[in-house]
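dumping these here so i dont lose them again. two proteins, back to back, each one seq then structure tokens. dont judge the mess
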Amino acid sequence: SDLKSMQKYSAGFTSERLIKNEMTQVISLYLLGKKKDEIRDVVIEENLFNMRNVDAIKKNLSYINRRIRYMDENLMKIYIDNNSNDSMVILFYTFLSSFRISREFVIEVVYHNWINHKKVVTCADINYYFEDKSQQSEVVAKWKESTAKKIKNRVLEFCTQCGILEKQKGEFNIKPLQISPELRNYIMNNDEYKKILIYIIGE
């Protein structure tokens, strides 16, 4: 999609969280036909996120809206349909779509290892990946060490929270993600979303 083709590397996700339930609430409001501004007002007035701070609410809403750009109405419906695996996989997909450094990590390290029958990601793999990116990209090369470390941790944290990696003794086991037949069929028949099948590491 156009959103991804020209995407630059960004360090903009270091403060992101899963916010899976908040995302469900926002998507439900979109599916009711509400507009972005209306949703912001409802979320703030009814304190749907249980956050005291309006700035924190707005920040989390901006994360959610950035992710939602990568979903069509069908994916939204599947997301709120209560199958926890499906919604986690869709959330993972929208996160990877939003951030090139994490998307390429999953494709070039996790997926690459898996299809080459290596079912772990080692610290050496991770460090090599980030060094490689800093050779390829001036943006990545300019990240301060503390920023790079934060980014590395957040990418791994997202992969772990979404279930594709499982930390064990200093390395990460790769775990295929389970999805419903409904979501699988939808992805298979929709070119825009075929990538999701790579992100979940088929058995």
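---- next one ----
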Amino acid sequence: HDLEPSATEKFRLGCCYVTAMGICGLILVAIASNLNVVAENCGSDFVNAGTVFIGRGLGAVIGTLVSAKLYATFPGNETIASALFIVVLMLIAIPSCHSLRTLHFYFFMCGLGTAITDTGCQIMTRKIFTTDAGPWLGANTIAFGLSGAIVPLVEMTTDDLYVQYLILAALSLASVVSLWLG
């Protein structure tokens, strides 16, 4: 809508963007943390499966490049939520992956989704808060950096890779829902 958001709406949206940025940081740590187990599922080892990060990087570059057009064409919150939903699907799929080629695709999609989310959170934070965006942009960056600490906490609760990834997917899905509702 074209109406100026209220202070409460701005705060709520700011919190949604901070949370979404946190999910981006969480995903980065999560996909690296258990790569040895995921690689074994694919009949490979950690060293040979490390090339999946090239796929993730390529997805991140493409995601960043297409973001300007996406956010100029589609509503920002829905675009962020859609990109994060792609990541949720990848989190659900990764533990059952048995093909290194497919794993490359999943990591590519994680890179694409997190880059579109990251860029969108910065764009939308700036759009919503205008000249007061500085502290919120800083909070986005802090959330990205600190959220990775959640991954080891989840890993300490269970050794089951599927359960770990379902917990991370649920956290990510909560962020998607908050953006769709926002």
